[in-house]
């Protein structure tokens, strides 16, 4: 007997509203490090482990999953930094990760000439910590330095350390901010904007910073100067630095009023100025002197320009223009079945991924005369997920990941100037997909909304209601469930009740 996996896909949003009058018997779990919470977690884990250990398939499935996770022939995920290709590689030898670099020409080969930049396992042993890297901000116009986010054990709180890509080493005497829930952005080569818990308790009710200060090189944290203060009821406040292909830098502060609502403040000579934007707008990139924003609501500017929900717009950074919003340019407005997904800048163009009836698409957008933008569809495989990996802000190239339910991931190199696409890596297949197929159908809700979904099944599976089915659906946080490659060999497993 076969098993069918049915994945429900679509623009389904579920409103999760907690009734204030309803008592929460598990509120004590919010004290995540308390002995009571940890005892409860360990007890629940033990229940799960016992159940899994009793399943006769578990040991084999575990070995297969572990082999896939630690395989040496998996595609290294690339990022562009400082004119090089970087990758954070993990395997059985590098459990914490080896941050390494090579050239684009070398990366095209199956066995690139990787050079180590930072070995997290060595650093962990040297400093007696459990370091994992959560990100690297190399957003200086000259791109000479990076700010690394190092997490001890993978927690939200991070330590910030300055890194020199040219020397492939942490900077002696450089910026080094101690552990905390914090965010930082380059303001200049010798100055950072930092949001953190400056004094005990100076965090939002969500547990994140809302006070931003300017910190110069060599200053202690106590000498930092406050430049912005949100509210304790905010989700968080974050400094942001963007750099376009010509080296123009925009320094902003993002105030998250709620999970989906944001205010943006742009640094001008006289200080930070609030941008006249709707709360439901997301900052995406900086390209050709324009702030790129996506809209999660309809918007009419003070000057009367109208933009629909789901649109992508550009705000020129000419003096005063981005503040008024009157010069906003329409880059993209979604069609009936289109949904904007990801946006990145590369040189003087944008790379945008879309969903067209839940099928992945990618397009380039280039500024033209009189505030218009040209759109070009990239020729990529159909019926697949198309995900943006990274784009070279100072160049004109980008990486995309393309995959499907039965198709292993493939890495594509995109030239935004010529719209040339090239598959340069394909992951090995984890199973024989020749016996399986994928279908797309639509379910109709009570209000008439047509919601697309996929069915992955064995070609020989009966359609008489007797085939066991695993149903997966999700609706929340504007996150769709798109085709993804997995271990679908279990489609042919004997069924266990």
3D structure, described in words:
The protein has 497 residues and is mainly beta. It has helices at residues 35-54, 58-69, 104-107, 120-127, 321-324, and strands spanning 4-8, 79-81, 84-89, 98-102, 115-119, 131-137, 146-152, 158-164, 169-170, 176-180, 183-188, 191-195, 211-216, 225-229, 236-243, 249-256, 262-268, 271-274, 281-287, 290-295, 299-300, 306-307, 312-316, 329-332, 338-346, 349-356, 359-367, 373-377, 385-391, 397-403, 410-415, 420-426, 436-444, 450-458, 469-473. Strands 6, 7, 8, 9 and 10 form a five-stranded antiparallel beta sheet that branches. Strands 33-34-1-35 form a four-stranded mixed beta sheet, with no helix packed on it. The chain has a four-stranded antiparallel beta sheet with strand order 2-3-4-5. β31 and β32 (420-426) form a beta hairpin. The chain is globular and about 70 Å long. The model is unreliable at 1-20 (pLDDT under 50).
Q: Fraction of residues in helices?
A: under 10%
Annotation, overall tally of beta strands: 35
Share of residues in strands = 35-45%
Distance between the termini: 12 Å
Q: What is the makeup of the main sheet?
A: 5 strands, antiparallel
Mean pLDDT: 89
Oligomerization: single chain
Shape: globular
The helix count comes to: 5
């Amino acid at each position: 007997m076969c098993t069918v996996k049915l994945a429900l896909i679509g623009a389904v949003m579920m409103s999760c509203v907690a009734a204030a009058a309803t008592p929460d018997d598990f509120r004590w779990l919010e004290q995540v490090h308390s002995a009571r919470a940890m005892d409860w977690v360990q007890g629940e884990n033990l229940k799960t482990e016992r159940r899994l250990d009793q399943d006769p398939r578990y040991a084999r499935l575990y070995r297969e999953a572990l082999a896939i996770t630690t395989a040496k022939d998996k595609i290294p995920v690339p990022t562009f930094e400082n004119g090089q290709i970087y990758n954070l590689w993990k395997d059985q030898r590098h459990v914490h990760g080896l941050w390494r670099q090579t050239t684009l020409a070398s990366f095209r080969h199956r066995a690139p000439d990787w050079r180590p930049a930072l070995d997290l396992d060595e650093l962990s042993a040297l400093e007696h910590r459990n370091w994992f890297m959560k990100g690297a901000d190399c957003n200086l116009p000259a791109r000479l330095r990076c700010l690394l986010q190092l997490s001890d054990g993978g927690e939200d709180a991070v330590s910030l350390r300055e890194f020199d890509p040219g020397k492939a080493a942490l900077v002696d005497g450089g910026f080094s901010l101690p552990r905390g829930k914090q965010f930082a952005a380059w303001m200049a080569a010798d100055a950072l904007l930092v949001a953190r818990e400056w004094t005990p308790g100076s965090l939002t009710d969500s547990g994140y910073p809302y006070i931003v200060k300017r910190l110069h090189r060599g200053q202690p944290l106590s000498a930092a100067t406050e430049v912005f203060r949100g509210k304790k009821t905010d989700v968080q406040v974050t400094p942001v630095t963007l750099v376009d292909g010509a080296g123009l830098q925009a320094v902003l502060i993002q105030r998250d009023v709620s999970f989906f609502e944001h205010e943006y403040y742009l640094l001008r000579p006289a200080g930070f100025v609030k941008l006249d934007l709707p709360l439901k707008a997301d900052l995406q990139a900086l390209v050709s002197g324009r702030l790129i924003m996506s809209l999660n609501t309809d918007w009419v500017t003070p000057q009367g320009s109208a933009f629909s929900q789901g649109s992508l717009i550009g705000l020129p950074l000419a003096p005063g223009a981005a503040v008024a919003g009157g010069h906003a340019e329409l880059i993209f407005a979604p069609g009936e079945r289109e949904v904007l997904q990801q946006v990145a800048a590369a040189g003087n163009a944008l790379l945008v991924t879309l969903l067209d009836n839940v099928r992945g698409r990618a397009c380039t957008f280039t500024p033209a005369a009189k505030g218009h933008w040209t759109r070009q569809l990239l020729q990529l495989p159909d019926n697949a997920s198309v995900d943006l990996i990274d784009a070279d802000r100072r160049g004109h190239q980008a990486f995309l990941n393309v995959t499907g339910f039965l198709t292993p991931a493939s890495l594509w190199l995109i030239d935004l100037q010529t719209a040339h696409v090239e598959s340069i890596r394909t992951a090995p297949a984890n199973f024989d997909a020749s016996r399986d197929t994928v279908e797309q159908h639509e379910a109709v809700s009570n209000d008439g909304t047509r919601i697309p979904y996929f069915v992955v099944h064995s070609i020989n599976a009966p359609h008489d209601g007797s085939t066991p089915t695993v149903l997966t659906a999700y609706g929340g946080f504007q996150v769709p469930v798109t085709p993804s490659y997995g271990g679908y060999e279990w489609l042919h497993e004997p069924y266990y009740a």
